Amino acid sequence: MLTGTEYILRRISLLGVKHIFGIPGAHIYPFLLKSVGTGVELIINCHELSAGYMADGYGRASDKLGVLFGMGGPGSNNMVTAVNTARLERVPLLVITGDVPVHLSNVPGFQCANELGTHDDAIFKTIAKYSKRVSGIDDLAYLIEEAIRIALTPPFGPAHLIIPYNVFTEETSAQPQPTDYARLRFWKNDRSTATLSRIRDLLASDKKVIFWIGDSLNRAGPAQQVICLAEKFHIPVATSFSAKGVFPEHHKLALGNFGYAGWSLAKAMFLSDSPDVIIGFDIEQNERNSLGWHADLYRGKELLLVNFPGSYSNKEYGESIEDNPFYILESLYTSLINEVYDRHSRERWFQTILQGAGGEKARPIISPARRIEPARLVQLLQKEMPRDAILFVDSGEHRVFAGQNWKAPAAASFYSASVVAPMGWALAAGIGCAFARNEPVIVFTGDGCMQMHGIELKTAIKYNRPLLVVLANNKAFGRIHRYLSTMSEDAAKMAGIEEVDWKLFGQSFGAKVFDITSEECFIESIRRFLAEPRLTILNVSTPVNPYHHDVTLARSAFA
Ligand SMILES: Cc1ncc(C[n+]2csc(CCOP(=O)(O)OP(=O)(O)O)c2C)c(N)n1
Ligand SMILES: [Mg+2]
Predict the structure, then answer these.
(1) Which domain holds residue 262?
(2) Confidence of residue 556 (pLDDT cuts 50, 70, 90)
(3) What does pTM read for this prediction?
(4) Residue ranges with CB less than 5 Å from ion ligand 2
(5) I want to staple 424 with a disulfide (CB 3.0 to 4.6 A). Which of 88, 445, 452, 491 is the partner?
(6) Looking at residue 228, which CATH number applies to its domain?
(7) Nearest atom in ligand 1 to 446's CA
(8) Which residues line the pocket of ligand 1, CB cutoff 6 A?
């Protein structure tokens, strides 16, 4: 017999998940106490929201599942943005929140989410992919299985279970069994055969085709298929911001990322009428992907998007087929890889485009003043760090420079929450990744983001996670400053951030902190981190209005 807690944790352990993230609270005492010896370590965070981002980073980077736990009421309410981000960015998460014992569930007890008892499912039903209350120990095995299956079926997302206090301690005769959830990735529907043959015909034709790869495909398997198909049929490939690297960005067919903070090569190609067809996989027609629904993206070419059911679609913005991009790419690969195709006309076409655009060469960074430009920071970072370094990028002005200047060498090497863009995500998610992967992790963040979840540096130190945090410190909510400063001086002041002594802050947790004022000092500090990899913060003084080579890339509905 196993207690409810043992059952849950052993089931999670069978998925290969070794670390889960959360905050203690009365509702989950038995969950904390009975966790020892289950093969899963409970990582105790500073806030449920950043715990959620850590679970998100773990889920994205491990190709498994992130797990978040906490109490109901205030604990679960604090998780809301992380759960919503995981849904909109398609990250597999299992969220477990505690509750009062079943016999108290309909009275307003201490720390209830609402006046009728905890009933957190009322909140989570609107933001998660799935939310259920376990009514007793006999329900547990079935509901855990259902939650895991739903989280790991594309489009991935968060599944939530409320587990009442008594269910953690009661015993069950059920034994957790491993299930091969990898196969869930390849579901098909009644349109899939037609989708496949339509794309196959386009690839085999002499049409000028471009691939456009979206967020959920930022994993090794699909990336391999995209590379093989692109090379075989000579198809240039662009990605969304969060899928940077699914197609290696130094590849001769790489267009880089298109949309907000994208490459000029991708922009020139997508806004021209040179391609006949752009085929997108998991490219939702949202503002960021489409450069603010730029009219030229939809003119003079066919736009065919293979998107998960439920994705936003609008006929004015291309044709969206509801299907499974994982299945379609896998089937295109297996059915076409041995075909013979004459690439010559596509080769000639793309060569002409490249000559016209001058390629995506590293641009000289010309600063109006002698400061360390964030674009330059990213370029130097890439030069100094090992090729397989993983980069997590936060929300703000600094993100633009990562998008344009970082050349992601492979899938699963670049991560950003670019759909919801919650500030402070990158540090926490990067720490989550450092639990999942044994590789150097870099976090590129701003001082505003650092104010939100910088306290989680404590967690990185406590569990000995060696991250390199590059803090682009412009003493402002720079992204906001860019707009407010065009309105009035008083408005711009609202976007200022008063001096924070980040050195003192980081050192108070035991982090190594370097104040960076020159490029030489930046390079030297990176080398010191590599020689002795432990949590290191590079506090770089950057300008509030950095030099942009192409401000139109930041085009938005608001400006
Ligand atoms: C949780 C959250 N609140 C507000 C915003 C709006 N916002 C977007 S960028 C930004 C400023 C970020 O400042 P900082 O981290 O210093 O980066 P910078 O823009 O200066 O590079 C703000 C307030 C947001 N994205 N997320
Ligand atoms: Mg800033």
Answers:
(1) 187-356
(2) very low
(3) 0.95
(4) 446-448, 474, 476, 478
(5) 452
(6) 3.40.50.1220
(7) 15
(8) 395-398, 421-423, 446-449, 472, 474, 476-480
